[in-house]
């Protein structure tokens, strides 16, 4: 027979598991994706752009406009993904805390 206390234990342990997975996963994603691949990728692409020296009517305005617009777009995408990621992490942490507290409430004997 499934009792309120057993459901409370399941909620409590699932909440702790969700909290740990969220924290460890967030650290892993921030370390490897945001700091590692995205920053290095932008650095490599901007290094490649500096080697372009094509002149248009004696100037390189067209290429510089493309470079600056691409950097602005990448910065906007990076900021938006970071905000979305932080929002999702906060939602997961809130959900795990709710599960932990509900599990503790179900385990208590009134």
Structural notes for this entry:
The chain has about 110 residues and is mainly alpha-helical. It has 2 helices and no strands. The two termini are about 20 Å apart. The mean pLDDT is about 80.
Average pLDDT, all residues: 81
Number of helices: 2
Instruction: Tell the overall outline.
Output: rod-shaped
DSSP, total strands: 0
The helicity comes to over 70%
**From the structure provided, what is the oligomeric state, counting identical versus distinct chains?**
single chain
Strand coverage percent: under 5%
Sheet bearing the most strands, described? Answer: none
> Could you list the spans in which at least 5 consecutive residues all have pLDDT below 50?
none
* Structural classification: mainly alpha
Distance between the termini: 20 Å
Output the radius of gyration: 24 Å
- Topology pattern, helix = H, strand = E: HH
Short summary:
With 110 residues, the chain is an all-alpha fold. The protein is built from two helices and no strands.
Keywords:
single chain, 110 residues, mainly alpha, rod-shaped
List the helices and strands and how they pair.
Layout: H1 4-49, H2 61-107
Helix pairs in contact: 1-2
């Amino acid at each position: 027979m499934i009792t309120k206390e057993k459901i409370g234990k399941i909620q409590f342990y699932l909440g702790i598991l969700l909290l740990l997975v969220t924290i460890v996963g967030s650290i892993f994603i921030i370390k490897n994706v945001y700091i590692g691949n995205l920053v290095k990728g932008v650095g490599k692409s901007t290094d490649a752009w500096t080697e372009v020296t094509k002149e248009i009517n004696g100037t390189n305005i067209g290429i510089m406009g493309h470079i600056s617009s691409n950097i602005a777009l990448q910065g906007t995408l990076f900021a938006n993904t970071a905000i979305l990621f932080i929002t999702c992490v906060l939602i997961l942490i809130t959900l795990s805390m709710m599960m932990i507290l509900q599990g503790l409430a179900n385990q208590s004997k009134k």
